């Protein structure tokens, strides 16, 4: 082309960016500007796709700010929000969002999705409430993010409201939205409702099947999960790497060791699933829960990737029940290298030594924690009542209803003693 237009340059910049040829895409933009061509409202969003780090993205942001025509352009600003969220820079994304004079459904969805992906679930739900009050039309992508936040928080009432909103506004329950609703109900403890939703999703994709298989696995319904897995294959849906995790989890929670091992090898052979560390983690967990610690250790030694802290932690936890001190020490040696400040590992190792009456080693663990300034973090639990999530920690007296709660616990303990149950003080 003798004189390429801005449109032609945009097309090439996007093409390079989508192929991962980021440097070439950026060079094309420089060539375009050197040719005296002005960018349009598509140029900067395409250029953002070529940015491989936060510094480059901020460079594009500065170009948008300098260009008066794009300072208030929703499309360019929304792409910037998405970019910042993808790199975990929620602070910059939120600052940009708050300064926008006009926002559309894509803008709101971008920031909510960014918050949820960064595990800022409560902030995402709070922003969704603001979106509803602003009168912006809500689409299915927004709802998928909100349902994911509800699932992670165990926020059942909010999740039910979203489900009712979908029905009330006749929003098509496609496979992705259906999977999100199923996942929400399963993680919030209502597997029956999750199963009902699965049955009415008209087009079931692999993510829909994964949600119900994973939900059944989570609730200890191993046989039902494997039956669903069989139906999935019969229906012509090809399992993926997430399916294997869900199925192995089902076998783990139901003690189906031999079936789990068989499926693990079959998925690699017949479905060409690329095994990653999460799959090996599921297999190790399956073996550890069955007390097959030596076999689990052999898997870890021979797997094609280096075991991470999760796998060594799984092995260490299993050693408590089996009182396998030698293997526990091997696991602890690796954990000290991988996560030296994780208090839980030291406590587990100390408990294993205590079970074997090795008191000098118990003292050594406590000394290591003290010398490393490792503070034991208290455990906590959550419960949702009337759309409010309450957090409780061990020995916590800060809750406004603490007196009533402890009084009720004493009443329960008294009743248990009267029925000849043993009550252990905590």
UniProtKB/TrEMBL annotation:
<feature type="repeat" description="PPR">
    <location>
        <begin position="104"/>
        <end position="138"/>
    </location>
</feature>
<dbReference type="Pfam" id="PF01535">
    <property type="entry name" value="PPR"/>
</dbReference>
<protein>
    <recommendedName>
        <fullName>Pentatricopeptide repeat-containing protein</fullName>
    </recommendedName>
</protein>
<dbReference type="InterPro" id="IPR002885">
    <property type="entry name" value="PPR_rpt"/>
</dbReference>
<dbReference type="InterPro" id="IPR046960">
    <property type="entry name" value="PPR_At4g14850-like_plant"/>
</dbReference>
<keyword id="KW-0677">Repeat</keyword>
<dbReference type="InterPro" id="IPR011990">
    <property type="entry name" value="TPR-like_helical_dom_sf"/>
</dbReference>
<dbReference type="Pfam" id="PF12854">
    <property type="entry name" value="PPR_1"/>
</dbReference>
<feature type="repeat" description="PPR">
    <location>
        <begin position="205"/>
        <end position="239"/>
    </location>
</feature>
<dbReference type="InterPro" id="IPR046848">
    <property type="entry name" value="E_motif"/>
</dbReference>
<dbReference type="Pfam" id="PF20431">
    <property type="entry name" value="E_motif"/>
</dbReference>
<feature type="repeat" description="PPR">
    <location>
        <begin position="5"/>
        <end position="39"/>
    </location>
</feature>
<feature type="repeat" description="PPR">
    <location>
        <begin position="276"/>
        <end position="306"/>
    </location>
</feature>
<dbReference type="Pfam" id="PF13041">
    <property type="entry name" value="PPR_2"/>
</dbReference>
């Amino acid at each position: 082309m003798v004189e390429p237009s801005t449109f032609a340059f945009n097309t090439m910049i996007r093409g390079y960016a989508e192929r991962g040829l980021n440097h070439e895409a950026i060079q094309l933009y420089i060539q375009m500007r050197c040719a005296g061509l002005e960018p349009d409202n598509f140029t900067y969003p395409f250029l953002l796709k070529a940015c491989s780090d936060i510094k480059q993205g901020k460079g594009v942001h500065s170009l948008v700010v300098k260009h008066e025509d794009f300072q208030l352009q929703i499309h360019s600003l929304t792409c910037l929000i998405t970019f910042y969220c993808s790199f975990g820079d929620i602070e910059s994304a939120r600052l940009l969002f708050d300064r926008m004079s006009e926002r559309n459904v894509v803008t709101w969805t971008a920031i909510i999705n960014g918050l949820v992906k960064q595990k800022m679930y409560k902030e995402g739900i709070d922003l969704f409430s603001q979106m509803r009050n602003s009168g912006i039309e809500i689409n299915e992508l927004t709802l998928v993010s909100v349902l994911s936040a509800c699932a992670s928080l165990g926020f059942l009432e909010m999740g039910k409201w979203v489900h009712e909103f979908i029905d009330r506004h006749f929003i098509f329950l496609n496979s992705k939205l259906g999977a999100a609703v199923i996942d929400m109900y399963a993680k919030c403890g209502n597997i029956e409702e999750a199963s009902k939703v699965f049955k009415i999703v008209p087009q079931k994709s692999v993510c829909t099947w994964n949600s119900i298989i994973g939900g059944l696995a989570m609730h200890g319904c191993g046989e039902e999960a494997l039956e669903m897995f069989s139906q999935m294959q019969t229906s012509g849906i090809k399992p993926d790497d997430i399916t294997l995790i869900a199925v192995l989890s089902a076998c783990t929670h139901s003690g189906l060791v031999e079936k789990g091992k068989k499926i693990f090898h079959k998925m690699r052979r017949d479905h060409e699933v690329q095994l990653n560390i999460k799959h090996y983690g599921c297999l190790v967990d399956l073996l550890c829960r069955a007390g097959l610690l030596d076999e689990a250790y052999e898997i870890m030694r021979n797997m094609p990737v280096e075991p991470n802290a999760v796998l060594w932690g799984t092995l260490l936890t299993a050693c408590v029940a089996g009182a396998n001190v030698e293997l526990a020490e091997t696991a602890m040696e690796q954990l000290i290298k991988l996560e030296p400040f994780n208090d839980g590992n030291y406590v587990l190792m100390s408990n294993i030594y205590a079970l074997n009456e090795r008191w000098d080693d118990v003292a050594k663990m406590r000394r290591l924690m003290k010398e490393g300034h490792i503070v034991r973090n208290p455990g906590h639990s959550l419960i949702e009542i009337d759309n409010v999530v309450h957090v409780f920690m061990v020995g916590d007296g800060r809750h406004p209803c603490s007196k009533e709660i402890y009084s009720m616990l004493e009443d329960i303990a008294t009743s248990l003693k009267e029925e000849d149950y043993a009550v252990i003080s905590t």
